[in-house]
Every structure is written in structure tokens, then in C-alpha cells.
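Quick sanity check, NH(3)-dependent NAD(+) synthetase:
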Amino acid sequence: MSDSETIATAGDPLDLTLSDAEVEQRRTHLVEFIQTQTAAAGVDQTVLGISGGVDSGLVTGLAAEALGPENVHGLIMPSTMNDEKTMSDAERVAQRFEVPYDVIEIEPIVEAFLDAYPEAQDNRMAAGNLRVRTRAVLNYLVANTEDALVLGTGNRTEALIGYFTKYGDGAVDCHPIANLYKQQVRQLARAVGVPESVASRTPTAGMWVGQTDEEELGIEYDTLDSILALHVEGGVPASATAREIGVEANVVERVRALYEGSTHKRRVPPGPEEPY
């Protein structure tokens, strides 16, 4: 997004928050999902990256509740793109849920890749995705060593618009919060006891210095949730969606384009059909 652009904000965003009863019902359902996934894989241990953001904070809390904190191994993987406060919050999450964790600096690994292919040095997106994929490799290195399942931290909002790195944060064994819009992620995070500094943090993928999700996307999460729920998943026409939540029609169309353009990220890589 250029400096001249503003972040799209709905005048009347859709309220997708859950009732207290629904929060408890969803919490129980997600805890049972984690238990079912580990049992099906025949493992007791899980691994996940803890970033200091609300998504990983929620999954950490749910996993600790589902399996006991001793069976959740948190990896905090800072790079030079992360600020110290974010990493402190990541440790605060692990400590809050009494989850054992390791801190692994990824920049030396990233630099080794960039030294091997220097043409990518000045490509901000390529280098940013490299950092995310490096974390995925470390998640699986630990998981393979410990016979553990890798838990994802992706939510419904990000999955629908493809706002994740293919074979990066999308490379996991299961996505416990895949059916939660961002509004609901924040709500459940507070319910399970994620520290408020994390629950209310401005979301960032930590791909480069100063990066935030909303600035990169050019739209606030509440607005994005509203468009996805009404138009993309709900089938409400674009013009009606724009009127309902108070945004320009081109904002709705842009979200639709993100959804359609990221279809490949939500599918298994294709192969040719049999020729007969």
C-alpha cells in the first residue's frame, strides 16, 4: 500500500462476536479438536510457533488446555524484523500457560539462504516469505525429533484471502482456529486468558520492519471480516454489502479479488488427471 492510500474502514461493520454461551461451546469444541487430531496421529506432543500475536496466543492456550502444558512445545523464532516488545509478549504467552519453550534466532539461517541466492537480497516480499518458511522448517525439525504434531495458528479471515505464506505458516498438521474470524479470535483469546497486551496487539506477520497486516492489506480486520461473512461466504451482492457496512463498492470488489486470486493456496497442488 502506498503512503497516499488509507486503510479501508467500514462505517458500520458486522458484529461477528459470539455470545458467552457460544464462546464456551466453541472453546470446548476447539480443545476437543486438538485432542482428536493428536490421538488420530498417535502422538501426545505438539509444537507451535509463538509469535507474540493473538492467533498463536490463543492456540497456545487451547493446546495447553487440551493436552496439558507439558505436551506443548513453543518455539519463539525472532528475526531482525521483530521488535523486542513482540518477542517479550511471545515469552509472556508461553509463561502464562506454563508451556516449555525455546528461543531460536532465525536471522543466521535466513542470511545463509540469501547468501546462497543474493538476487533475493533486495526483494522484500521474497525475503519476508523466506523468514516465514524458515520458521516452518524449524517447527517440523523439532516435531520430527519429538514425534509431535505441528499446530497452525491461521484463522478464517486470513485463509479466505490467502494472507499466509504458502509452505510457511500454512505448512502445519492442523489449524485449530481455522473457523474463527479475527473478531472471534480476539474474543476467545481473552476467554482463555491470553495477556491483554497480546489480545489487543496490532496484527503483524513480522515480515519486515514496521509491517502491519492492516496496512499491507489496506483494510481493517473488522471491515474484512464483514465483507467475507456477508459477500464472500454469505452470498450477499457486492453493492448490497457495501451499503450495509458503509464502504465503497471497490473495497468489496478488492476483497473478492483477494479471495479468488488465492484459491491455489487453499488447495492441494494439482497434478494431471489420467489421460483415459
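Posting the structure with no commentary besides this: Strands lie at 45-49, 72-76, 101-103, 148-150.
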